[in-house]
Amino acid sequence: MELAQVRLLVSDFAACYRFYADVLGLKPQSGAGDGPYEKFSPAVGSAGIALQDREMMARVLGELGDAAMGHRSLVVLRVDDLDAYCERIVSRGATLLHGPAPMTDRMRVAHLKDPEGNLVELQEWLLLRG
């Protein structure tokens, strides 16, 4: 078994597309900015994040039509230089909720939300201290 992607169900597909492509800088697979589906990949690694139009899935499953409430997901992206990456994405319109700040002695993090309210955690892994 192989994890192909994590898929987020979104109501405002175009806003989320712009956030993951233009703000976070992930590479879209097909360029389908109007949806109903798009997969985004980082520059390295095989895991991906996909967006799926919530209304389309509601028709398929006969449920999930209501907007999600509260924190229902956390997308985690690892970056090499957290401060520089945060500076870039803030200049492109991101709003940081927290950080960059230490989370443990091995990791620094920053948090933000996409246009649908999904949490995004940016991680910078540190060498073990001591």
How does this model look, in words?
This protein has 130 residues and is of the alpha/beta class. The chain has three helices and eight strands; from the N terminus they run E-H-E-E-E-H-E-H-E-E-E.
Name the average pLDDT. Answer: 87
The total of helices stands at 3
Give the helix/strand class: alpha/beta
List the helices and strands in order: EHEEEHEHEEE
Any low-confidence stretches, pLDDT <50, length ≥5?
Answer: none
Summarize the structure.
The chain is an alpha/beta fold and 130 residues long. It is built from three helices and eight strands.
Key phrases:
130 residues, alpha/beta, 4-stranded mixed sheet, 8 strands, 22% helix, 35% strand, globular, VOC family protein, Glyas_Bleomycin-R_OHBP_Dase, Glyas_Fos-R_dOase_dom, metal-binding, MMCE/EMCE_epimerase
Topology:
Layout: E1 6-10, H1 13-23, E2 27-28, E3 37-41, E4 49-53, H2 54-61, E5 74-78, H3 82-91, E6 96-104, E7 107-113, E8 119-125
InterPro entries: Glyas_Bleomycin-R_OHBP_Dase, Glyas_Fos-R_dOase_dom, MMCE/EMCE_epimerase, VOC_core
Keywords: Metal-binding
Domain VOC: 2-125
